[in-house]
Amino acid sequence: MATEGNIENATHTYEGFVALMKWGTIACAVVGALVVVLIAH
Length: 41
Description:
By secondary structure, the chain is an all-alpha fold. The protein has one helix and no strands. The radius of gyration is 18 Å and the shape is rod-shaped.
């Protein structure tokens, strides 16, 4: 079984991954909106 330290490390890594995905999704949406605006003009 996993030890307590391994679970804490895994949880910390997963939280970092989820945060990265959240900000990456927001950044992609902003860049996509910018491209649409630039093409529309």
